[in-house]
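Page 37, top half.
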Amino acid sequence: MLKTVICVSGGGTNLQAVIDGIARGTINNVQIVRVISNNKKAYALERAAQAGIDAVCVSPRDYEDREQFNEAFLKKVEEADPDLIVLAGFLVVIPPQLIRRYENRIINIHPSLIPSFCGKGYYGLKVHEAALTRGVKVTGATVHFVDEGTDTGPILMQKAVAVESGDTPESLQRRVMEEAEWVILPACLDLIAAGKVTVAKGQAHIAE
């Protein structure tokens, strides 16, 4: 059983996709052992509670400095003793010590086809606003492993989504979630739990 901690800052739609996938049996041998949010008002915490999943909030606002927050966050992760950490819309810079401790055991879902519209400043609606401003015809989502850069770790899976005439950032965001994010994140969890994913020389590989 792949013990998984999911970190989220907002509504938790990707969290719900994972909860639903486990319930339907499309995600096998995965257990969400804890949900962590930096936002006390995050609906993701309510989603976790409704599903009977342990949920905690660790907010930077409750600590004097980033170092104290990082220590508290690391403690909450380690208490759950996860095999995998999933960043599902988690708008917090992950402490380097956590990344090193869980090397190749942290994945993130990003709402674009990396390397487009990623890196510092690209999150939430900002990603979709940038895609529409640039006039791209195809966007999508990416699941990647987390390293000490921003959206720079090995890419595990991507799924493309067409940009439609008349799209707004909000409509594009919704379609990317429905057609890509909620599809590839559960798929990646199932593959990792099945032992089919490896990382070597900066690239992620999926066994046939």
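Page 37, bottom half:
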Amino acid sequence: MKVLQINAVNKVASTGRTCCEMSNYLIEHGDTCVTAYSKGVSVDKNAEYVIGNAYDVKLHGLFSRLSGKQAYFSKRETGKLLRFTKEFEPDIVILRNLHGNYINLPMLFSFLAENDIATVAVLHDCWFFTGKCCHYTSSGCYKWQTECRDCPSLKKYNKSWFFDRSAEMFRDKERLFNSIPRLAVVGVSQWLTNEAKKAPIFKNAREIIKIYNWIDTDVFKPVDVYDLREQLGLGGKKMILAAASGWSREKGLETVIELSKKLSDSERIVMVGNINANVTLPDKIISMPATNSVEELVKYYSATDVFLQPSLEETFGKVTAEALSCGTPVVCFNSTANPELVGKDCGAVVPVNDISKMLSEIRTVLSNGKSAYSEKCRDFAVQSFNMEKNISQYYALFQRLSNKQ
């Protein structure tokens, strides 16, 4: 089987690591897989195709902001990709993050439709089935269930400086997605899958199914990290970990700051992830830069007493799954995909924006001790996010899509 993945990044960030892991797995099992990406880390030049360059990405981003339309530019680079795709002759094309200023959506989808290529759209966020936004629950906007217009998120995500093109982009996506004869849609959580089933953009999809993101549970596992706690200056203090590639209001930055103000002298929050230099953090937060090192992440997850997931908008939440796999209990808000990732006796789910309740549940976990949760956390992660099991679900989907009838 020949598989082509298209994603904004390779190896770096959660979707980039997912691409790399799937490619490695398929190749190890005798299949052929090429990952086409815009930015990231080269792993195997024989299994990669780099789309465009930094100049094209900047130009695309500028045109996007000026026009209010995302993924309508990069025609020359998309044309090159399509010529490569025609020569490669994939059995399956997997679409991941396409809103990274690097690809022309109408050109790509017209090619897939005209050549009747089996296509799997993996929902890592909500952009595929909305006119513009990647997330919509915080704004309370559900116009995508009929037709997007008057977008409340015009200045978020793929920013538009002047125009609201959400209605036009919605209609284009509806036409383009529904033109692909063999389309399957994969939601990476049950919450996201249920939302996708309400979307008219996917009304002609053959299947809309849930397949959880996977993690390598042989890598994300408990390790001895006494030295890390010493390096962080924690001594005998309790460690609460929060991790993201970048911290923003949407990711729960304000929640973490407010929570830290309520901590005792024996408690500290360690925040891993990039933070705007203008943000002033309270003394009880230890800020560490974002890392793409899996080994570093495993050490952080293993070192902490409890993992904090403060985001209200998560279509999966890979950091949550990784923390659980390292035997660490999780406390999160009851919003979007968060609660389904925290198994029974694996931590706690608290009402949205209830910081007092969140702190109370964190202290319950700290009082009980991490050892009271670790085995159940690890077992839940291995059962739910196992790479072999979850990729095998993709294999089965590929086989079903191979039928042109």
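Margin note: The chain has 13 helices and 13 strands.
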